[in-house]
Amino acid sequence: MSQKDQTLALLKSIETGQAGPVAVINPAKYIQHNLGAADGLAGFGALLAQLPKGSAKVNTVRTFEDGAYVFTHTDYNFFGPKIGFDIFRFEDGKIVEHWDNLQGTPTAANPSGHTMTDGPTQAIDQAKTQANKTLVRSFVDDILVNGRMEKLAGYFNSDSYIQHNPQIADGLSGLGKALEAMAKQGITMKYDKIHLVLGEGNFVLVQSEGSFGGKPTSFYDLFRVENGKIAEHWDTIETIPAKSEWKNNNGKF
């Protein structure tokens, strides 16, 4: 089985309870960055054991691969409805490291009628992977980390940008209105550091660290690139708990 197929089977096993797919995890080395789970394979098992029987649902909408990494976009019921991005790192055919970012599923579509997971799912333009990763990294660094708003329009094709954030409407106009509304409420959103940029074809995922509303936050942003411009965006935002609450010492990143 491919890395993608093994990852999909592992995620589905959370729902089905099948033990076989868990064999893809290296029992001697599994570095866990979900801070609600203890390290290693035992920590993964202990977390699943806490799930109420029959409660878990897993619908993985997107799966992409970048070298040793597989990253997924999933509609979960996992201790309640959530949308999540997961990143798995493979080594010698086994998964040895896992990161994720989970956000509660909203009860309604966003102002433009989009959900957090709808839209295109298949990667194209495989030959443009590196160029698209470079473009998206530059966007996040310029706009979200450094606030160089004068460069914003150059990353998009007019106002056709499709937005899946549950609070924000389509287009640069929608983004501007949302930022203005947050500012009026005194809510600040700050990206401080990019940790990981992964891509396959026209899809690029960026894992970043910063703050939202004054709380330490993990940002996962998935972008679809079209003709050298950003065309679509999905994300999850998760508050990083206080270190006293961590069940492993690996950190969120």
Please characterize this protein's 3D structure:
The structure is a single chain. The longest helix has 17 residues, at 129-145. This protein has helices at residues 3-16, 40-49, 129-145, 171-184; strands spanning 31-32, 57-66, 69-77, 81-91, 94-104, 162-163, 189-200, 203-212, 215-226, 229-239. The relative contact order is 0.15. Strand 3 and strand 4 form a beta hairpin. The protein starts with a helix and ends in a 14-residue tail after the last strand. The chain is globular. By secondary structure, it is α+β, with helices and mostly antiparallel strands. The strands form 2 sheets. A 5-stranded mixed β-sheet has the order 1-5-4-3-2, covered by helices on one side. The protein folds into 2 domains: 3-104, Nuclear Transport Factor 2, Chain: A (Roll), CATH 3.10.450; 126-239, Nuclear Transport Factor 2, Chain: A, CATH 3.10.450.50. Helix content is 22%, strand content 36%. Residues 136-233 form the SnoaL-like domain. This is SnoaL-like domain-containing protein.
Question: What are the salient characteristics of this protein?
Answer:
Nuclear Transport Factor 2, Chain: A; globular; alpha+beta; 2 domains; 253 residues; SnoaL-like; five-stranded mixed sheet; SnoaL-like domain-containing protein; 4 helices
Short account of what is shown:
The protein is 22% helix and 36% strand.
Beta-strand portion reads 35-45%
> What's the main sheet like?
5 strands, mixed
Integer average pLDDT = 95
Cα distance spanning the termini: 28 Å
Pattern of helices and strands: HEHEEEEHEHEEEE
Strand order of the main beta sheet, please? 1-5-4-3-2
What's the CATH class of the largest domain, please?
A: Alpha Beta
- CATH fold assignment of the largest domain: Nuclear Transport Factor 2, Chain: A
Number of strands: 10
Protein name: SnoaL-like domain-containing protein
Organism: Fibrisoma montanum
InterPro entries: NTF2-like_dom_sf, SnoaL-like
Domain SnoaL-like: 136-233
